[in-house]
Design goal:
It is built from nine helices and ten strands. It is of the alpha/beta class. It has a single domain, classed as TIM Barrel, CATH 3.20.20. The strands form three sheets. Strands 5-4-3-10-9 form a five-stranded parallel beta sheet. It has a three-stranded parallel beta sheet with strand order 6-7-8. The protein has a two-stranded antiparallel ribbon with strand order 1-2. Helix 1 packs parallel to helix 9 and helix 3 packs parallel to helix 4.
Length: 273
């Protein structure tokens, strides 16, 4: 008698690996613009992100106690913190900020943000590679926030970046992937992990880029400014995992013509006399 196959009840573990470190989630969350610290805390606890991004500039000079509570909240959440260099406009400013962040957060992880245009907040693509080279030389694990430009991304890999964070659209726009061709080309050509950072507004956007083979997503505004940030954090976490599972499962090939899902072979054929 043939033994029936045994199928697993859950998908096998598929961890995200960055710079040799393993993370069980493929979702990263920002920590700004939430209605309250308690909402941020609940959103993080529901979504269970791999990392939380935070800026060294996150301080309240008028009421330092507010800043102290925020830093204490991050510590209490027990989620790895990814410091970023948000607001930096020059390589020297960025390098200084990164070193300060390493001291404050006691981590070698850094999200490289170098702003080239204040209106679109587009990264400075001309100086980013040099900044990444210096940070890597100084022992940082660099995650550069960049555009979907293939040549730029290749240069970042060439200087030692083991992962990239290309945008889907300008930060805070919520437009979703505005250049699918560029993003798919980027995914096909480069083999390093890539986390889509900026421009995602809907959980369906997260699922879409994950279906294309991207390795993770980083969100802030889409969650923090939702009517219900906690529920939205959970929705993005579920969509991110669903997109990853779809990519691993292998999606069907899109076709122009209809094709019946129910076979007609062997079914009766009736006709009127």
């Amino acid at each position: 008698m043939n033994t029936p196959p045994v199928f697993p009840q859950t998908a096998p573990l598929d961890p995200l690996v960055l710079y040799g470190e393993t993370f069980t989630s493929r979702l990263l969350l920002g920590t700004s613009r939430y209605p309250s610290p308690s909402v941020l805390q609940a959103a993080v606890q529901l979504a269970k992100p791999a990392m939380l991004t935070a800026s060294l500039r996150r301080q309240n000079l008028v009421n330092p106690e507010t800043s102290n509570r925020f830093w204490q909240l991050l510590d209490d959440l027990k989620v790895p913190v990814l410091p970023n260099t948000a607001g930096c406009h020059s390589v020297s400013e960025l390098i200084t900020t990164a070193h300060m962040a390493r001291e404050v957060f006691a981590t070698d992880w850094i999200k490289l943000e170098l702003i080239g245009d204040d209106y679109t907040l587009q990264p400075d693509t001309l100086n980013m590679v040099d900044a990444a080279r210096q940070l890597i030389h100084d022992g940082f694990k660099v995650l550069p926030y960049c555009t979907d430009d293939l040549v730029l991304c290749q240069r970042l890999v060439d200087v030692g970046c083991q992962a990239l964070m290309p945008w889907a659209a300008p930060i805070g726009t919520g437009k979703g992937p505005i250049n699918p061709y560029a993003m798919k080309t980027l995914r096909a050509r480069l083999k390093v992990p890539m986390i889509v950072d900026a421009g995602l507004g809907l959980p369906s956007h997260a699922a879409q880029v994950m279906e294309w083979g991207f390795d993770g997503v980083l969100l802030n505004t889409a969650v923090a400014l939702a009517n219900d940030p906690i529920r939205m954090a959970g929705a993005f976490a579920a969509a991110t995992q669903a997109g990853r599972d779809a990519f691993l499962a292998g999606t069907m090939t899109e076709k122009d013509a209809a094709e019946p899902s129910t076979p007609v072979l062997g079914t009766p054929f009736w006709h009127e006399a």
